[in-house]
Amino acid sequence: MRFAGKVAFITGAGSGIGRATALRLAAEGAKVAVHDRSESAARDTVEAIAAAGGVADVFISDVSDVAATQSAIAKAEQVLGPIDILVNNAGITSDFCSLEDVTEDMFEKSIMTHAKGTLFATQAVVPGMKTRGGGKIVNVSSISGTVGNPMATTYNAAKGAIAAMTKGWAKELAKHGILVNAIAPGPTITPMTTNRLAPEYFTERAKDIPLARWGTAEDMAGVIVFLASPDSDYMTGQVVSPNGGLAIT
Length: 249
Known about the structure:
Elements: E1 7-10, H1 16-27, E2 31-36, H2 39-51, E3 55-60, H3 66-80, E4 85-88, H4 104-132, E5 135-140, H5 143-146, H6 153-173, E6 178-183, E7 188-189, H7 191-194, H8 199-206, E8 215-216, H9 217-228, E9 239-240
Parallel strand pairs: 1-2, 1-4, 2-3, 4-5, 5-6, 6-9, 7-8
């Protein structure tokens, strides 16, 4: 029960990595603010947590809507208590097309969800963390934001921005006891990927991965939970990439 007495706010926790992280944190004692833009998805996660004996509640907004998201965070603190852990996980698929075909709308959607959403959710929790003398912030970047992927211009840009902000915030907030790290997942099976890619793509792509398989949401949640826990108290400003050996730096 490493997280007994702690409150965690997880964006995009209705499915995929966010849901897996919510379940793990709740299983280890955290009270979890399950955030998503889909109320039904968030409620499914909360019901799964409750069925396992955990404590959680639903908070709804689109992370690109700053006022709505900051209001959801404020409400979560009223309902569950001060936020000790923030996981900026909410994300969308974006362009996945050639550079020449990228549109302004693609760019804006990707940046507003990933970079803007991460920035302003973090802004909302930092004052309270400063007052209490500490906290953990874990951002979800991507291997696309660290080594880049072809046909993914705006996704690369947005996830790269998250990695860069993580490093800057770590330096800025260290004196307040606030630790900021990120994960950069490699190929991961989540609803966001299975809804977009043909089944045979997963088999072919796995041939490029040294561990010969795609990652799971639970694989990524394990690293997030480590970064949120006391076990990572001497880590800040790091971008950890669970990627099956696809990128080794």
